[in-house]
What we know:
By secondary structure, the protein is of the alpha/beta class. It has a single domain, classed as 3-Layer(aba) Sandwich (Rossmann fold), CATH 3.40.50.300. The chain has 9 helices and 9 strands. It has helices at residues 3-8, 26-36, 66-74, 93-101, 112-122, 136-146, 151-165, 180-195, 204-211; strands at residues 15-19, 40-42, 46-47, 62-63, 78-84, 87-92, 105-109, 126-132, 173-176. A 5-stranded parallel β-sheet has the order 2-7-1-8-9, sandwiched between helices. It has a 4-stranded mixed β-sheet with strand order 4-3-6-5. The model has no long low-confidence stretch (mean pLDDT 92).
Amino acid sequence: xxxxxxxxxxxxxxxxxxxxxxxxxxxxxxxxxxxxxxxxxxxxxxxxxxxxxxxxxxxxxxxxxxxxxxxxxxxxxxxxxxxxxxxxxxxxxxxxxxxxxxxxxxxxxxxxxxxxxxxxxxxxxxxxxxxxxxxxxxxxxxxxxxxxxxxxxxxxxxxxxxxxxxxxxxxxxxxxxxxxxxxxxxxxxxxxxxxxxxxxxxxxxxxxxxxxx
Length: 213
Ligand code: 5GP
């Protein structure tokens, strides 16, 4: 590791929250972001909903019972939690605090309720990004292509989408995912710029002192 790399590692991680209505492409974008950037970790939520085909425990979510969820909540082990549709979702506190203290960035795939709770707890470390679909027809199509939910669930998710979208103005950045490559480019620009904020580079004063010595 070069001297500069060592200095730069003395930083606190940034928390990137990604919210969107279901089917706006948030999961794909999160996965791509993680694949492209080894300095970003994913916060894996706990949920009481049933796994969808192909979802893996410990990777997509930790699938837990309602009793276990209540226990974690009562024990203060959730950084934020919310009821979405008929299920409970929450962010385990431990892994987030550990990653941040190691200077890693974290991405959260959570809804507006979770974003608000994180903002109340740690506004300085938080960057809130909202992803909009190009239109509602496309949103429904994406939900159907995913083909893992019943018609009834899809109808329910569509009716919830407008409610989720109504929170767009609470976010720092908003992007429209009409083209996934372009949207990814926009997301990566946000991540890069937010990392370069002066307050997120506490190593700079030591660096500059050495520079002009
Ligand atoms: P899904 O059931 O489709 O995986 O997720 C439904 C919604 O719950 C999505 O909008 C997702 O972002 C949100 N969600 C997932 N995990 C969490 C969490 O830990 N906290 C909150 N507040 N929302 C979550």
